[in-house]
Amino acid sequence: MFPIKKISRKKWIFCLALILVSALAVIILYLPGNDRRKFQKLSQNLFVSELCDNTLSLHYTLAYPENYGLDTEAVLPSYTFEEDGGKSQILATLNSLSQISPEHLSEDDAYTYHLLVRYLNLRLKGTDYPFYSEPFSPSSGMQSGLPILLADYTFRSTEDVEDYLKILDQTDTYFDGLIQYEKEKASKGLFMSDTSAQKLVQQCSYIMDKEVLSSEEHFLHTTFEERLNEMLENDLINEEQKNLWLSENDRLLTTVMEPAYERCADAFTLLQGSGTNNMGLYYLPEGSAYYEYLLASTTGSARSIKEIKSMLFHDFQQNYSDLLTLLSRHTELTSSSDPVSVFPYSDPEEMLTDLQDRMSSDFPSFPTTENFVPACTIKSVSPAMEDYCSPAYYLTPPIDDMSNNIIYINHKNSPDALTLYTTLAHEGYPGHLYQTVYSQLYMNRQDTSPIRYLLHYGGYVEGWALYVENLSYYYAQTLVEETDPSSAAWFEACRLNRNLQLCLFSLIDIAIHYEGATPSQISAILRQIGINDPNAASAVYQYIVEEPATYPKYYLGFLEFLSLKEDAQKLWGKEFSLKQFHRFILEMGPSDFQGLSERLHSSSIISSR
Question: How far does CA 594 lie from the centroid of its chain?
Fold first, then answer.
């Protein structure tokens, strides 16, 4: 038994004070406000760390990084091998998040919290496959992506020009790091096929052609000069400074960037023959498991592959049935003559204006107090890049400057008027441009955690664009339905045919990469829908092999939005309208579909504004 010591009143009061202070500290630690501060600090640190080591990402994310406390030297990331594939860093972040209670966060922060946790857990799965990604994909790799980013690197100040030149000066070490990664892939039997490697060698030689560089007609020379001329007109620089920078740009293109591409071509020439697989991911060790991860991370859908296939099959059957019904009602569409009259518009700017007018009853106005209309410039893809670019693409503006937007049109295969109209809907209004600007403006107004801007959800972004592209076919029909019903029916047939093709290619993507479908099996499937040309069938197979999960990113994303719309109609009943549904999707911003579904089912209808 321990002896009882007498405690003086003074000591008692002191001990009691210590107990109260300790208790208060514990209470403060678990107060809701503390969780909010911890989450805000954590997300801000993640945002900064993701951007500070990559000036290209930083520049395309923030127009004025100094307002976010970012002031770093211009740098391109270089590849370094991590033994655990970055797993420890992700686990550390997840551990920090586990110490924060989402119940103590605002509704907006809680939504971001759950998105971030799911996003990181998915990335954690990806660390099991460190050598399965392909930075040099012939269709979308950095050999073509980097020049595109450089050509549109905005010059808002002289510091931007200096950063741009510093980036050019690092392209050799950047590509050297990626080449080292490819060598390590090859050593593990995971290098690309010889067909893909040969494509890449040709691309490197063509994109950085020595003769074009020496003639000062290369697009990285002409676009650089155009941007300097704009600065000169705005009195940001003088003629002497312009000429000095032009000379430095040409020097770096010929002495740093071109040799980097040449080394890349040499490396891939030497690595040819080391690839062990010229078919889908299925034939790689753990290939099917990697595809499951890739499909989930690319599309943002948490559905099983079995469920995804069922959705795709059902949609294909429905579209096919609708097309047969349409053709039976409009037999003139099956004649050999062209059933389409002249489309009412041919100018891209006119088309965008028409789309903005027609969408106004279905989509909300931008969430600003002023009558904000972002500028949109339509440009043509450089002839040197036409073979390596998609038919069109939208260049996302920085989150703190949504006023200037660019849409590129690839004129290699000049689209007909209907295709151009629906493409501009996909890229512009009510597609990528409208969705990006709306969501960013809304999240900026809500002071949403900046980490949301770095969580990429391809299924949301491309699924939305395909969803509104489908609506644009209906808009096109309203242009001609009174004066030319046959053209309106033809437009609907084109919509159904496009959906059938994208749906089929999504099923083929799963068949190739998850189930091991061979070229001959895919050719047999394509013959059933009228694609009898062996070269065309081979091109489809090869593209899907090189770009796994790309078609599902578009089409599964589209089907997920249709599923959400059906749920909203059931939940909201008579209160449902397209404008309300679109507002809900836009205000949630880019997300995975689990998050959107959960929020839809837990929230009452958004009040009209």
Answer: 18
